[in-house]
Amino acid sequence: MKRRATHVLVAALLLLHSAASLSPAAAAAEPGHPTAAAAGTTPAAAAAAPAAAAPATELELAAADEVYDFPLHRLAFGSCFRQQQRWEVEALAAAAAAAAADPAAAPSAAAAEAAEAAEIREKVFETILATKPQGWLWIGDAGYAGMNDGGKNQENKEEILRSFLSFLNIKPQSPRWTRKGLYSSHLFPLPQQQQQQQQQQQTQTQQQQQEQQQQREGDHQQQKQQQQQQQEEGVRL
């Protein structure tokens, strides 16, 4: 139940972050976005500029790790609360059968079956990663960074985190590599914003097509003029 509550909390945070980041107030507070205080249009604004520039660290933390060009219509979570343990059960059964047949070979048989189960699980993860749908996110909890609720008792946390990020093919320039945790932020546009972007793209495409058509017509007209000149020169000769 703890993981399910964690997943719901993460979902709420994602939605709140998306809504806050897409609001006019948030847009004006984005890194690199000019604000009235920074512009210094009035003495009061100029005086407020240092105060507005102070929480730079907070702005960096609030910036999204990944920005998408399609809106978020649905948010669904898959949980390992009732995970499929068939591979582990089959591995234990095979190890038990090997131990019954030859007790001396039981340790090596158990290790081999456990390794095979881990290999199957790894292939499943790779398949999911390779065939992920558009907008697919992998949200990890403590179980992906070692033992559940390991906290300070978990060894090699940084190494485990690097392995997790490498598995997800996180870009080297992502701030997640310097972050002490698995959390991440993702920004989706509102449906209205996406519609505006699509309209702008369509307008640009139409303009390009019109320019290309005009260019073709101009080239065709130029060719006709050249042909007429050649014909006139032939008549003169």
Automatic annotation (TrEMBL):
The keyword Signal belongs to this UniProt entry's keyword annotation: yes
| Region spans: Disordered | 190-237
> From start to end residue, where is composition biased (Low complexity)?
192-213, 223-237
Annotated signal sequence is 1-21
UniProt keywords (A-Z) are: Signal
Descriptive protein name = Uncharacterized protein
Give the organism, scientific name.
Eimeria maxima (Coccidian parasite)
